[in-house]
Specification:
Elements (H helix, E strand, L loop, with lengths): L24 E2 L2 E2 L6 H11 L19 E5 L2 E3 L2 H10 L4 E4 L7 H15 L5 E5 H11 L3 H9 L3 E7 L6 H13 L3 E6 L3 H8 L1 H10 L1 E7 L11 H7 L1
Parallel strand pairs: 5-8, 5-9, 6-7, 7-8
Antiparallel strand pairs: 1-2, 3-4, 3-9
Helix pairs in contact: 1-3, 2-3, 5-6, 6-8, 7-8
Bound molecules: adenosine-5'-diphosphate, magnesium ion and zinc ion.
Adenosine-5'-diphosphate binds next to helix 3 and helix 9.
């Protein structure tokens, strides 16, 4: 058997129905295609409109030694395990860090792909909040219309929320609806826990954190001066 996308011959990585492939739908039913896991993941990432620079972000190409993670319960020993469990159990994930370039979006993308692979018939959307909400401002769309579109999905990645204070009521609505519908949320933000409560309200945020986890990431790689540097900064220096 060969992968329908990359044509790699393989015995062990064959896959069944191609739920991510729109062209697979034929009159009278579904056509069966076989894909390798790598291609299927990429199709899933593209399908949720993930930005190109994160299409290949996975758990497997993340350097876990670069980050320390904390939840309310304390230091996380095995971040990958925690994220995989949350994804499996459909529990909201909030990845927070004060700095940029620590890998929040990479991990959110990896979680999203992993979720999509486990929920093959369900629909996900990756929302880059800054560009989404500025588009919203330009488009003249009513928020209800946007909300309808967002709510139609079973999983949302809200990348970098909190940079659009003028839309906090809208984001609040999305959070509430997703929580109430028990839909999966993967959020990244620079806002710390306190700011999260202020911005989106105690009621919804505390519930979100009860079912899911608010995970704070810090960089562990230190320069000689003792300053923490992010992975991106490290790469830039190389
Ligand atoms: N620990 C890491 N291992 C591998 N790549 C990383 C790691 N941290 C960051 N990166 C990469 O560095 C870039 C910046 O990370 P990103 O996820 O955009 O950071 P953030 O969203 O926290 O600002 C991305 O291309 C990402 O893939
Ligand atoms: Mg980011
Ligand atoms: Zn393939």
């Amino acid at each position: 058997m060969r992968c329908a996308a990359c044509n790699t011959p393989s015995d062990d990585v064959v896959d069944n129905l191609s739920p991510f492939d729109d062209t697979a739908f034929i009159i009278g039913g579904y056509e069966y295609h076989y894909y390798c896991r790598t291609c299927l993941e990429l199709i899933a990432a593209r399908r949720m409109k993930m930005p190109v620079r994160y299409l290949h972000s996975r758990f497997t190409n993340f350097d876990w030694t670069c980050v320390d993670a904390k939840t309310t319960a304390g230091t996380v020993v095995d971040l990958q395990k925690l994220l995989e469990t949350l994804v499996q159990e459909n529990r909201p994930i909030v990845l927070q860090a004060d700095e940029v370039g620590i890998g929040k979006t990479h991990l959110a993308a990896a979680c999203a792909v992993s979720w999509a692979m486990m929920n093959r018939r369900r629909d996900a959307l990756f929302v880059d909040c800054l560009s989404w909400f500025s588009r919203l401002a330009r488009s003249g769309w009513k928020f209800n219309e946007i909300l309808e579109e967002l709510l139609w999905h079973d999983m949302l990645v809200l990348d970098d929320i909190g940079r659009e204070p003028e839309y906090q009521d809208h984001v609040k609505l999305v959070l509430r609806e997703f929580y109430n519908q028990r839909k999966m949320l993967i959020i990244t933000s620079n806002l710390n826990r306190g700011m999260f409560y202020d911005r989106f309200g105690m009621e919804i945020v505390s519930r979100l954190f009860e079912t899911g986890q608010f995970i704070t990431l810090t960089g562990t790689v230190k320069t000689t001066s003792g300053r923490t540097v992010s992975y991106r900064e490290q790469l830039a220096k190389k």
